[in-house]
Specification:
Layout (H helix, E strand, L loop, with lengths): L1 H18 L23 H4 L3 E3 L2 H4 L1 H7 L10 E2 L8 E9 L2 E12 L2 E6 L19 E5 L12 E10 L17 E5 L24 E6 L16 E8 L1 H8 L10 E4 L14 E5 L6 E10 L10 E5 L4 H14 L2
Antiparallel strand pairs: 1-4, 2-10, 3-4, 3-6, 4-5, 5-8, 6-7, 7-8, 9-10, 9-12, 10-11, 11-14, 12-13, 13-14
The structure holds 2-acetamido-2-deoxy-beta-D-glucopyranose (4 copies).
Length: 332
């Protein structure tokens, strides 16, 4: 745990050093959203879910773009191995030729180790009300360069998947609420210097001013989709939810207090980052907490004009607790 904090302190310091001007939270009063219909995609494309045929990951076309990668979520930094020890990678075989890749966070709470992710990472392709079979889901901790596994990462099978019972994205004109899911493993991950769980926040946590995002999602949203091999990180300011509602709700799209909006110039989460963490530090005890879960973008990712929307984890503590107790009872 200490090692994790030291490493993370180190990243924060180095990110602030390199990029201190851009890391200040944006003052809402100064921010004027510019609506540009060109950047407005069809809502289903805005989902961060990243489901492509397996060939796409190693396809020649993508290899050609690797040389141009400079390291971003969109606009982020390439992590050092071991920086984000709670980062999980979910691989779900949703159909014989479909591999869905998502992020998740390794959490230790209520005496159990489990994964926290987005509901939309765990639903069937055909019916968003149906949870995937645990058999088709594999989970990896300690992953870093996903094209060059080292043997230091650990894989687990999944024994139970839970999605929020009110989650529904079947109406593509509605953005999903309650986009949260839990993943229980065949056995706990061994804590190493690359793998260590993060804590849940308190129920009454105020929204942090900034959060640390991480994932293997696209590093560009226009032109060719560039998929990084190495985990990307980004510190991004959050914006007050009332301000986000006032400026970005449109066409029946509703936001809620149970979500967090993040907005940063030319940077943000993108397709493939779904389910992944937004982490923050408790100002009192300096420990890391899982503040949010990547859910969707309100517009083109990385344009700096539309926020990404994360599930606010502190709003779901009771829900998580209930499902962890159910799991414990079933596994006595
Ligand atoms: C999903 O739908 C497709 C086409 O409608 C069908 O071929 C496939 O078997 C379905 N998959 C599942 C898991 O139900
Ligand atoms: C994979 O990583 C190892 C170090 O962990 C390195 O020595 C090796 O060159 C890498 N291989 C490729 C193909 O990048
Ligand atoms: C996962 O399940 C498969 C098939 O049942 C088994 O072969 C494999 O060893 C399991 N892996 C782990 C890490 O438990
Ligand atoms: C932060 O830490 C303090 C002191 O341990 C604790 O009282 C508070 O609930 C924590 N906040 C969160 C969000 O967990």
């Amino acid at each position: 745990m200490n090692l994790q904090f030291n490493l993370l302190v180190f990243i924060i310091i180095s990110i602030f050093k390199c990029d201190s001007s851009q890391n200040r939270p944006r003052s809402p009063s100064k921010f004027e959203p510019q609506y540009n219909p060109r950047y407005r995609l069809n809502p289903t494309q805005l989902m961060l879910s990243n489901e492509l045929p397996p060939g796409d990951q190693t396809g020649q076309a993508l290899e050609d773009f690797d040389a141009r990668l400079t390291g971003r979520i969109v606009g982020g930094k390439t992590a050092q191995e071991g920086d984000i020890q709670y980062q999980l990678r979910i691989e779900a075989r949703t159909a014989p030729k479909r591999l869905r890749r998502c992020g998740a966070s390794l959490v230790l709470a209520f005496g159990v180790q489990f994964g926290v992710t987005a509901a939309h990472c765990l639903t069937s392709r055909n019916d968003t009300k149906v949870t995937l079979s645990p058999k088709v889901v594999n989970i990896i901790a300690g992953a870093y360069n996903v094209k060059n596994f080292t043997g230091r990462e650990q894989r687990r099978n999944v024994t139970r998947l839970v999605i929020h019972h009110l989650y529904d994205s079947s109406d593509e004109h509605k953005r999903p609420f309650e986009d949260i899911g839990l993943v229980f493993f065949s056995s706990p991950f061994k804590v190493t210097k690359l793998i260590s769980p993060i804590l849940l926040p308190d129920q009454n946590w105020d929204q942090p001013d900034e959060v640390l995002l991480s994932g293997w999602g696209f590093t560009s949203s226009r032109g060719p989709k560039m998929r990084p091999d190495i985990l990307q990180t980004l510190w991004t300011p959050t914006i007050p939810i009332q301000f986000c509602k006032m400026n970005f709700e449109y066409d029946g799209i509703k936001l809620s207090e149970r979500q967090i909006c993040n907005l940063k110039d030319k940077a943000g989460a993108c397709g493939g980052d779904s389910g992944g963490p937004a982490a923050a530090r408790n100002v009192t005890n300096r420990r890391w907490y899982l503040a949010g879960i990547a859910s969707y973008n309100l517009g083109l990712c990385g344009s700096g004009m539309y926020p990404s929307v994360y599930v606010r984890v502190s709003s779901y503590i009771n829900w998580i607790k209930r499902h962890v107790s159910d799991y414990k009872k079933a596994n006595k």
